[in-house]
TrEMBL record:
GO BP terms, alphabetized: 'de novo' UMP biosynthetic process; amino acid metabolic process
PANTHER family attached to this UniProt entry: ASPARTATE CARBAMOYLTRANSFERASE (PTHR45753:SF6), ORNITHINE CARBAMOYLTRANSFERASE, MITOCHONDRIAL (PTHR45753)
Protein name: Aspartate carbamoyltransferase
Domain Aspartate/ornithine carbamoyltransferase carbamoyl-P binding: 16-154
Enzyme class, broadest EC rank: transferase
Keywords, in A-Z order: Pyrimidine biosynthesis, Transferase
GO terms, molecular function: amino acid binding; aspartate carbamoyltransferase activity
EC identifiers of the protein: 2.1.3.2
Family classification: Belongs to the aspartate/ornithine carbamoyltransferase superfamily.
Encoding gene per record: pyrB
Domain Aspartate/ornithine carbamoyltransferase Asp/Orn-binding: 162-337
Length: 451
């Protein structure tokens, strides 16, 4: 780590944000861990790094650990904090858009830490802010700083990340911590066993991305050795596409779970459920921890918990969830110091250009199928945008919440014609010329004619 002797504000084109776990490369992540480990030796010894810097906490949803650990981290770096922990009492109550809010707050602070109920809100904020933006959770989309805390705990406790065998259990559909965590585990070539509560399985777009971008192979798993924890769950095993890494299972015909390095539990995210039931939710107790596959497993949880981890596990040395929470301070110190330019890290990625993230759609309804995406919840203030995922077939995702666009029709801005997305013509269009259309009626109403 080295201090950067500069008090000048960064130009927006050079700003690094942490909106998604994808914003940091693997080398940067390990560099953050090394910095956090150095900070944790004496948390009070680093106030010289960010004197005069201010972090603004904009929390549109409740938070205890994330907000307090970020504010503690900034104070320990020698900076200050501005807290808006109940945004309903701020100008948002008067109808101010998130885009306007972050533009204003950028003039008050050197970094913005944002929590928001809409997926893609942090990406929107990063687009308009002139200071670094950190995603502290956007709906059920991502929570990258929690993921870094989780990975850091695994790295400290196990000494490595590559090849670990990790069970993810509970609400895998709506838990944003799970979505960030599973992408990061895949990047570090971990083996992942998904044990969801029935009806709360991983979203299809997450599985598709794991397969296409990280080379994981989803295989049905026999999790009966996990006892009541698995229950009626339809367990799935995700492994890097290498046959020798099928070591978790005793035989290919059964694919039984044999040994686990860490069990990551999540609470039911009932505030985001759409009719799903959380009855008979899985529970980890002393009997669970006595099972052979979990004999040496760490028990992790992003907290807060309800009843999914019994208090009897609190005194078990394998239960590291309170250590995990405490480690949020040094890891967020490392994040803040890095984004504010106070320390350098190896393997730093170039700042992504706007054109690599956003391809704006012309005025019209949002093509994003996710109704809780920021393009729907702030429709008056947000121009929908997409990010190209593939050409053959033509695939794109919402640039804000990463949900794949289901639009069956594609139009050309210049030709003012449209055709099926699967057509050769559509696949040949320049990315800046593409318009995703919901149906033929919408296409005609917007002035497109069928080829």
């Amino acid at each position: 780590m080295s201090k950067v002797a500069s008090d000048s504000r960064q130009h927006p084109a050079s700003i690094r944000n942490l909106v998604s776990i994808d914003d940091f490369g693997n080398d940067e992540i390990i560099g953050l861990f090394e910095a956090a480990k150095a900070f944790s030796v004496d948390l009070r010894a680093h106030a010289h790094l960010c004197p005069g810097s201010i972090s603004a906490s904009l929390f549109y949803e409740a938070s205890t650990r994330t907000r307090l650990s970020f504010e503690s981290a900034m104070l320990r770096l020698g900076g200050g904090v501005l807290t808006a922990a109940e945004m309903k009492s701020m100008s948002a109550q008067k109808g101010e858009s998130l885009a306007d809010t972050v533009r204003v707050v950028s003039g008050y602070a050197d970094m913005i830490v944002l929590r928001h109920p809409s997926e893609g809100a942090a990406r929107l904020a990063a687009r308009y802010a002139t200071v670094p933006v950190v995603n502290a959770g956007d709906g059920s989309h991502e929570h990258p700083t929690q993921t870094l805390c989780d990975l850091y705990t695994l790295w400290i406790e196990r000494g490595r990340l590559e090849g670990l065998d990790v069970v993810l259990a509970g609400d895998l559909r709506y838990s944003r911590t799970i979505h960030s965590f599973i992408f990061a585990l895949a990047r570090f070539r971990a083996n992942i066993v998904c044990v969801p509560h029935p009806g709360l399985e991983l979203p299809d777009y997450v599985l598709r991305r794991l397969h296409e971008e990280y080379g994981t192979e989803p295989i049905r798993a026999d999790a009966r050795q996990l006892g009541d924890l698995a229950g009626e769950s339809d367990a799935m095993y995700l492994t890097p596409n290498k046959p020798h890494q099928l070591s978790l299972f005793t035989e290919l015909s059964a694919l039984e779970v044999g040994r686990v390095d860490a069990l990551y539990m999540t609470r039911p995210q009932t505030e985001r459920h759409h009719g799903e039931s959380a009855e008979r939710y899985m529970r980890v107790g002393a009997e669970t921890m006595a099972l052979e596959p979990l004999r040496d497993a760490l028990v992790m949880h992003p907290l807060p918990r309800r009843d999914e981890i019994d208090a009897s596990v609190d005194g078990d040395p394998r239960g590291v969830y309170f250590k995990q929470a405490a480690r949020g301070v040094p890891i967020r110190m490392a994040i803040g110091a890095y984004l504010l330019g106070a320390i350098d890290l190896p393997g730093a990625r170039p700042v992504p250009t706007a054109s690599s993230v956003f391809h704006d759609q012309p005025a019209g309804p949002s093509p994003c199928p996710n109704t809780t995406c920021i393009t729907h919840t702030e429709a008056r203030h947000v121009q929908p945008a997409f990010r190209l995922r593939g050409r053959h077939p033509l695939r794109a995702a919402c640039a804000y919440c990463a949900q794949e666009l289901a639009s069956p029709w594609v139009g050309s801005r210049t030709e003012r014609q449209f055709d099926a997305r699967s057509s050769d013509w559509a696949e040949s269009l320049d990315v800046e010329d593409l318009v995703f259309l919901g149906d033929e009626r919408e296409a005609h109403e917007r002035g497109f004619t069928r080829r």
